[in-house]
Structure formats: structure tokens, C-alpha cells
Q: What sequence folds into this?
């Protein structure tokens, strides 16, 4: 559904007017954005920005900007751990990093990405693993890849109180099946399949769907047909929101430039320039100065030299 139409039609989700909740009989304001508020944002036509983060400092930095959703993506494998892709990423790695992001944030909704083979083999394993994200890492929702094939699982997870973000189009965990990182849904038949997948995820209870590398026309058609928000990456301007990988957005890998990403800073180059200046200062003796050093009192220094049996220094004599 187009954003304006979403507004007019209203939404079938129960959007809490206030996030006041009861803790031990006392009303307390919840600071973090909730999935119902995400749905409300889409209903009001507010575009939703989502960004990935993988550790405590990056979570603190992005959370302070007011970004509504932080995704701890399994792109962790590529950008943080040096794997060739997302397939080797484990549950323990995801839990470790997601917990750090939760500790580093107080405002954003944090979504943990379920890694390859943490949800495909058995529903019971999938439910337990999704539960680990909420119980051990402390995030508020999980994301998993796939269309109609994962809809029954999503229905179960949502039924057990675990909010789920879907992910269709190019799904990196299926890179071997898809034959590379390719745009999906370019043919009319494939585009129709994507719409069927999106509708199945919505019916199963997903609260939003990532559309990765799909033609802009197809992303628009999916967005128009859904009530839940679509969040695009390489899916054109008509999704309800957008997601970008932290390292792509900030130029932390200066030699990597993707068509679907926009660089808002050149931090990789800035970091290297800063480290080069530091090396130079150390070599030149320009760092540290007195401003970065600590001293003992003159009296203690004198006693110290007496203890060592040193001759008084010129400074002490003077
Ligand atoms: O792992 C990830 O970062 C993702 C986003 C690109 C959507 O899945």
C-alpha cells in the first residue's frame, strides 16, 4: 500500500498511544522504540531509517543520533570478522555482538539477524535460537531470510512473542543457490513471486520486510500491497524505509563502493590519516607532551632520588 493510503486506511495493528508500562505496580516510560511504534511510523508516512551496528561504540554513536532501528546484521561476517560472506557466522558470534549493541543503545529498536542454519533445520531449534536473541542478547526482534518457505516458522515465532522482520529479494545466506549477489525479481514472473512471498510474510505476522537488491518498480509494487513497512537496500526510493551497512555508509572500507550504498563520510581515510599523524608524532618526540603526562611532587621526587642514591638533578638544585 502506498504510504498515503496506509495513512488513510489506518492500521490493523494495535499501536500503543503511550509506551507507559507497569513494572512492579509502578508505571514507567519505556525509552526504546517498539515494533508497534515502527508500524505507527509507517502508517503516518514517516520514512524509517535503519542502520547496522555490531559493537558497543558503534551502537552508542548511532543510537545517540535517534535512528529508530539498529540491525545487528549477519553482515557481521563480512565487515567485522573478515569472512567471505555471511554463511560461516554462528549463533554465538551473533549473540556476543548483539548483546554489545544492546548495552550500547537505549533508544533504538535492536533487531538481531538469525545466522545461516540457526533456523532452517528444525522449527524447535529456530524457536530456541530466536529466543536466545531476546533472552541472552536482550534485543527486541529477530530478522530471518526467506519467503513463503519460512512463513510457517514466522507465524510460530510471532505466536511465542518474538517479533520478526522478514528479508526477501537477494538473501545473502542463499548466495550459492542464487549464483552471486544479484538483483532479484527482474522478470515479471520472479517479481510476482516476490509479491507472493511478501504477502505470505505479512500474513504470518512479520512486522516489516527488508527488500534487498530488487528493481525499484518491484519494490514499489510490494510496498503498495503491504500494510507492514518495507525497508529497502538497493530497492529504490519507494520503500517505507531504508537500511544501510555502517561500514558502507561511513567509508570504513575505502576501496569498496557498492551501487546500493551511499557514503556519507570517509572515515577509513580519516582513521588512517589520524594513525599516520600519531606514528609521526611518536617518531618526532612530539607525543606525549607534559599535557599528556603525570608528575610526582618535588618533595617526593627529592626523596625518591635520595632512596635511589642519585645525585640531585639540575632542576632540583636550581
Ligand atoms: O546482514 C545485514 O546487514 C542485512 C542488511 C543488509 C539488510 O541483512
A:
Amino acid at each position: 500500500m502506498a504510504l498515503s493510503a496506509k495513512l488513510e486506511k489506518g492500521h490493523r495493528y494495535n499501536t500503543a498511544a503511550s509506551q507507559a508500562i507497569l513494572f512492579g505496580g509502578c508505571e514507567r516510560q519505556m525509552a526504546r522504540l517498539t515494533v508497534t511504534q515502527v508500524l505507527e511510523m509507517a502508517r503516518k508516512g514517516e520514512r524509517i531509517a535503519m542502520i547496522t551496528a555490531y559493537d558497543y561504540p558503534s551502537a552508542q554513536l548511532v543510537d545517540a543520533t535517534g535512528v529508530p532501528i539498529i540491525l545487528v546484521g549477519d553482515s557481521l561476517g563480512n565487515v567485522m570478522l573478515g569472512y567471505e560472506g555471511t554463511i560461516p557466522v554462528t549463533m554465538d558470534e551473533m549473540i556476543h555482538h548483539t548483546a554489545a549493541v544492546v548495552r550500547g543503545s537505549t533508544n533504538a529498536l535492536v533487531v538481531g539477524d538469525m545466522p545461516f542454519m540457526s533456523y532452517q533445520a528444525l522449527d524447535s531449534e529456530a524457536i530456541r535460537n530466536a529466543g536466545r536473541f531476546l533472552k541472552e542478547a536482550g534485543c527486541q526482534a529477530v530478522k530471518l531470510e526467506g519467503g513463503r518457505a519460512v512463513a510457517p516458522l514466522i507465524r510460530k515465532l510471532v505466536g511465542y512473542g518474538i517479533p520478526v522482520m522478514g528479508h526477501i529479494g537477494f538473501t545473502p545466506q542463499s548466495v550459492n543457490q542464487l549464483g552471486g549477489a544479484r538483483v532479484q525479481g527482474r522478470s515479471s514472473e520472479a517479481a510476482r513471486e516476490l509479491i507472493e512471498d511478501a504477502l505470505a510474510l505479512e500474513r504470518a505476522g512479520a512486522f516489516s520486510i527488508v527488500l534487498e537488491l530488487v528493481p525499484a518498480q518491484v519494490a514499489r509494487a510490494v510496498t503498495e500491497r503491504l500494510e507492514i513497512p518495507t525497508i529497502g537496500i538497493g530497492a529504490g526510493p519507494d520503500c517505507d524505509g531504508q537500511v544501510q551497512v555502517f561500514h558502507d555508509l561511513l567509508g570504513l572500507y575505502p576501496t569498496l563502493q557498492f551501487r546500493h550504498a551511499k557514503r556519507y563520510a570517509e572515515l577509513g581515510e580519516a582513521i588512517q590519516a589520524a594513525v599516520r599523524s600519531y606514528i609521526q608524532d611518536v617518531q618526532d618526540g612530539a607525543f606525549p607532551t607534559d599535557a599528556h603526562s603525570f608528575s610526582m611532587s618535588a618533595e617526593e621526587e627529592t626523596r625518591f632520588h635520595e632512596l635511589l642514591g642519585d645525585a640531585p638533578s639540575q632542576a632540583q638544585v636550581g
